[in-house]
Amino acid sequence: MAVRHYTLDFSLPAPADLPATMQGLQSIFQEQEMTETIHDTEGHGYLVTFIGKNGRFGVLRAHSHGLVTFDLQCCEGDDVAQVDNLLNELEKKMKSLLHGNIKRIKRLPALRRGDEVDRYWPTADGRLVEYDIDKVVYEEDSVYQNIKILHSQQFGNILILNGDVNLAESDLAYTQAIMGSGKENYAGKEVLILGGGDGGILCEAVKLKPKMITMVEIDQLVIDGCRKHMRKTCGNVLDSLTGDCYEVLVEDCVPVLKRFAEEGRTFDYVINDLTAVPISTAPEEDSTWEFLTLILDLSIKVLRPTGKYFTQGNCVNLTEALSQYEEQLGTLSCRVDFSKEVVCVPSYMELWVFYTIWKK
């Protein structure tokens, strides 16, 4: 059963008479039949907990620097109107006790914790976003990752891999950006897509009449889920692993890239849709940085002299990680140059950086 978690904060211009203020609030909790327990904070403000017979649990904390916080947890079946009334009365009483001497009152919508449908997903730069997700349409664990496709009322179906929002049906802007934002002529060209199991890049590339597209996706279950539940993104291109101008290889791209390099096979465009730039430059991310550098180096080897390599970067706020990625470009086996573009991807709810890289 889910729990709703309400928060109500009062920012005071100066510390108040905490015991007197807290005592003035007692009647509100008594009316709600909530039992009070006062805790010893060893001089660090004032702390009271409240337990109600209907399972409600409240924490009222007055900090010595002037912040008063109230947290209330309620079970899913609790009366929402009663809870709202409790919070309204608490806010009204605080204003009365402090004679309106409050700088700011902040009340957030309830967090739904333990819900069957998870609607909270972090952005790349660590902010929490609540999506309007109403159902799970697909979930599988492959040998590589956890795969979810969730339905959002705004964004359509959203592909989430290992807890990261990858792509929603609303996110054509992502696909267009990672293909060059409409500035490239794909007609008669040879294209290599790394990853892209949602089928979005393949679907859009096929429309541009290339000579041949080779897509290398390691996870068949991603393809299976998106074929059925991301039709607005992939169209019908995932119905078959081969088409008039494309083939999909369900393989690890690293040995495929090495094989192409050994065979001397080259491409006009290489589109890397495998992974974003790591959000951190910490040592625990070293393996991901090594993987990115390996893919870059191998991709440049199969890129024609006039070809272009497209990839995503990450959130525009992650300046340190993006700078490290740009420094990595100077360590490749041949000299390259790059440009970047910032695009708003709807379901990400943040600005996203995309790179175009070419040989000097």
Automatic annotation (TrEMBL):
<dbReference type="GO" id="GO:0006597">
    <property type="term" value="P:spermine biosynthetic process"/>
</dbReference>
<dbReference type="InterPro" id="IPR035246">
    <property type="entry name" value="Spermidine_synt_N"/>
</dbReference>
<keyword id="KW-0808">Transferase</keyword>
<feature type="domain" description="PABS">
    <location>
        <begin position="119"/>
        <end position="359"/>
    </location>
</feature>
<dbReference type="GO" id="GO:0016768">
    <property type="term" value="F:spermine synthase activity"/>
</dbReference>
<comment type="similarity">
    <text>Belongs to the spermidine/spermine synthase family.</text>
</comment>
<comment type="subunit">
    <text>Homodimer. Dimerization is mediated through the N-terminal domain and seems to be required for activity as deletion of the N-terminal domain causes complete loss of activity.</text>
</comment>
<protein>
    <recommendedName>
        <fullName>Spermine synthase</fullName>
        <ecNumber>2.5.1.22</ecNumber>
    </recommendedName>
</protein>
<dbReference type="InterPro" id="IPR037163">
    <property type="entry name" value="Spermidine_synt_N_sf"/>
</dbReference>
<dbReference type="InterPro" id="IPR040900">
    <property type="entry name" value="SpmSyn_N"/>
</dbReference>
<keyword id="KW-0597">Phosphoprotein</keyword>
<dbReference type="InterPro" id="IPR030374">
    <property type="entry name" value="PABS"/>
</dbReference>
<dbReference type="Pfam" id="PF17284">
    <property type="entry name" value="Spermine_synt_N"/>
</dbReference>
<dbReference type="InterPro" id="IPR029063">
    <property type="entry name" value="SAM-dependent_MTases_sf"/>
</dbReference>
<dbReference type="InterPro" id="IPR015576">
    <property type="entry name" value="Spermine_synthase_animal"/>
</dbReference>
<feature type="active site" description="Proton acceptor">
    <location>
        <position position="273"/>
    </location>
</feature>
<dbReference type="Pfam" id="PF17950">
    <property type="entry name" value="SpmSyn_N"/>
</dbReference>
<keyword id="KW-0007">Acetylation</keyword>
<dbReference type="Pfam" id="PF01564">
    <property type="entry name" value="Spermine_synth"/>
</dbReference>
<comment type="pathway">
    <text>Amine and polyamine biosynthesis; spermine biosynthesis; spermine from spermidine: step 1/1.</text>
</comment>
<keyword id="KW-0620">Polyamine biosynthesis</keyword>
<dbReference type="InterPro" id="IPR030373">
    <property type="entry name" value="PABS_CS"/>
</dbReference>
